[in-house]
Amino acid sequence: MKVITSFAKDFLSSQVGYGFSDRETLVLDLFFTNTDRKVFFIRPALPTSVSGALISMYSRMKNQRGIRGHFVDNLLPLILLSFTSLFRDQKDDEEVGNTVRKMQKFLSENHIRSLDEFCAFSFPLEKAFSEFFASASYDVNYMEKIASSPKTKHFFKLFLDSYGHNSIARTTSFTLCCENISMLAAKSLEWSRPGSAFIELSSRFISMEKAEVYPVWEEVSNMELRSLTKESIYRMFEMYKEQTSLFTEFMKERYAPVFSPDDLERGAFGEACDVVGNFLPAGTLTSVGVVASGEAFPEILKHLRLDNTPENEALIEAIIEEGDKVGLGQFIRHADPSEWKRKSWNYLDTDHFFLDTDELRDSKMIGWYGISSRQAEDVLLKSFKDLHAYKEAKTFWDVIAILKRIPRGDYDKLPNQFEFGSGFFRGIMTFRGWRDVHRQGFSTHMRTYLTPHIGFYRYDKPAPQEFFDASREVYRTGRILYQKMRECLISDELTQYPLALGNLVGFHIGGNFSQWEFVNWQRTKPSVNHEVRKVIVEGEKLLREYYGWWKEISRANLVPAYIFSRTKEYIAMM
Question: What's the half-sphere exposure (Cβ side, CA atoms, 13 Å) at 498?
Answer without folding.
Answer: 32
